[in-house]
Amino acid sequence: MILAMDTSTFVLGVALGDAETVRAEWTTHEKKNHSLRLMPGIDHVMKTVNANPSDLEGIAVTTGPGSYTGVRIGVSTAKGMASSLRLPIYDVSSLEALAGNRRFAFGLVCPFIDARRGQVYAAVYEADDGHLKTVHEERLWLMDDLLKTLASTSLPVYFLSLDIAKHRENIEQVLGARAHTGEGMDGRIKPGEILRIALESPPVANVHEVVPRYLQLAEAEKNWRKAQAHDE
């Protein structure tokens, strides 16, 4: 069995499963510190199916982009477990996992996470019978630039995000009827989708190579660099 975890947004999720099924899945939408909830969540799904650490065959974790603190907690926990249990580790993009919610759609799938100041972490995929083909790699975009890029295609675009309400008006104004902003559960990363991606991917060769995908500097580091440049 593979244990999968996601801490890249305020929604925290854990799943346990194999190639045949998701045996247990747990998600919480509470805006609380992931460091207080992740290990209890892991313990919960393990106990749900009476699994022991010796039953695990791998650890899968979303490495971002997303919340700096959240991603760091998930990556550190996954690496610690993989190292101590001597298990393979799977590095999964939070945006790819989110895009999986619409992998059977027709058109483009654009998962994004708000990065403040009019910016988003986003990627664009083309859905093809359950498979996702990367059209634009994940990166930090100005939302206005992302929408201009998507406006150049005639395909419908499915936007997936917990932050959809912040950008819905702008999205619909630029793309009109081609924009599908969705509702409900499609905006969150599903732990079972992390499992599916991991099972279809090779593990990372060296656990120490698994690092967060921040895509931009943390605010504290930006300020530190500015201060250093000023001192010089």
TrEMBL record:
Keywords from UniProt, A to Z, are: Transferase
What start-end ranges are recorded for coiled-coil regions in this protein? none
**InterPro entries to which the protein is assigned, alphabetical:** ATPase_NBD, Gcp-like_dom, T6A_TsaB
Q: Name one GO biological process term.
A: tRNA threonylcarbamoyladenosine modification
Q: Name one GO cellular component term.
A: cytosol
Give an example GO molecular function: transferase activity
User: Has the keyword Transferase been applied to this entry?
Assistant: yes
Tell me which residues make up the Gcp-like domain. Answer: 31-148
Q: What Pfam families does this protein map onto? A: TsaD
The record's PANTHER family line, in alphabetical order, gives: TRNA N6-ADENOSINE THREONYLCARBAMOYLTRANSFERASE, TRNA THREONYLCARBAMOYLADENOSINE BIOSYNTHESIS PROTEIN TSAB
Write down what this protein is called: tRNA (Adenosine(37)-N6)-threonylcarbamoyltransferase complex dimerization subunit type 1 TsaB
Species of the source: Salicibibacter halophilus
Tell me the lineage of the source organism. Answer: Bacteria, Bacillati, Bacillota, Bacilli, Bacillales
Underlying gene: tsaB
